[in-house]
Amino acid sequence: MKKPTPDRFAGSTAAGGGVAPPVRLELLYTQSNASRWGLPRERFSAALERSAEKRLSTGSLPPVRVEEYLASLHLEDLALASACLENCEPAWEHFVTAYRPYLRAAAAAVLRRSSASPEASELADSLFAELYGLADGTRRERSLFRYFHGRSSLKTWLRAVLAQRHIDAIRAGRRFEALDTDDTKPAAHKAAAAVSVQPADPHRERYSTLFVRALEAALATLDTRDEQRLRLYYAKEQTLAEIGRELNEHESSVSRNLDRIRLALRRTIEETLRNGRPAANGFAAELGLSDAQISLCFEYASADASFDLEQLLRRRSGSRPAAGRPDP
């Protein structure tokens, strides 16, 4: 594994090469419940390091932002995935019991079939071998769990993997058909036809669009101060301490308020997507989405980077002065 360098972590590495000091690591380890699976602290620390390396692949962050990043991770899910990667038997037993029904339901949503259908079961169950990493006797080097970094929930990540596997299968099938349709065509022409095929989930664009629309509606419910908190944290990438100084709040209050805003936005978005939209202003009515479809909306919108939060906030606020600042 590639070791982090001091310049990439901007001085955030602790003695011994970890991304968190011992006291902070112990707190994260406790919060993750990693001991439940028998996952050693050093292996959990290695998982945090992999996640931070992935986050910092495009640049460096000051130590305080690294700590904020680590605290924002889905620590329990990261611990479970890491324990499965290390072949901890209790973790695997829990994963199979708790996640097999979910994977089949997610596969059914991807395939638009019943969760009891053979196709959904086959797609879901095929993922277990890849997660377990059975190939040539080398588990850890091949298990898909090594790609989970805790930035999303484990369920969201698994659903995204299932969707990608389905898309890959479509792509492979269509490329084969394109190459096999006419043997009289030149090889170069047939290769170009194969490359031009761009299969995708036919509902992906619609789900992303519905998500952005619901997000705009959710942002419209924010008061000025909450809008400013989001802009400072996500658009200007200020630290909690910097936001606290600007808004005259304690750092812990800033953190709690951001958690509150994120939760409120998610609930509003989910409710909007679940309720659908009646016919109005020349637009046809839209049916509400299922829980699985709503989850795909979040996943697709995130993966496609189909919206700019700063732009949406700017559009919403217009010329209104920022919170905590007097009118000019």
**What's the overall geometry?**
flat
Q: How many angstroms separate the termini?
A: 54 Å
Computed over alpha carbons, the radius of gyration is 23 Å
Put simply, the count of helices is 14
Largest sheet: none
Total beta strands = 0
- Mean pLDDT over the full residue set: 75
In terms of structural class, how would the helical and strand content be classed? mainly alpha
Q: Give the SSE string.
A: HHHHHHHHHHHHHH
What level of helicity do the residues show? 55-70%
Strand content: under 5%
- Spans where pLDDT lies below 50 across 5 or more residues: 1-17, 175-200, 321-328
Kindly describe this structure.
With 328 residues, this protein is mainly alpha-helical. The chain has helices at 22-32, 41-55, 63-72, 75-85, 89-111, 118-132, 154-180, 187-196, 204-219, 224-235, 240-247, 251-275, 291-304, 309-317. The termini are far apart. 28% of the residues are buried. Residues 1-17, 175-200 and 321-328 have low confidence and may be disordered.
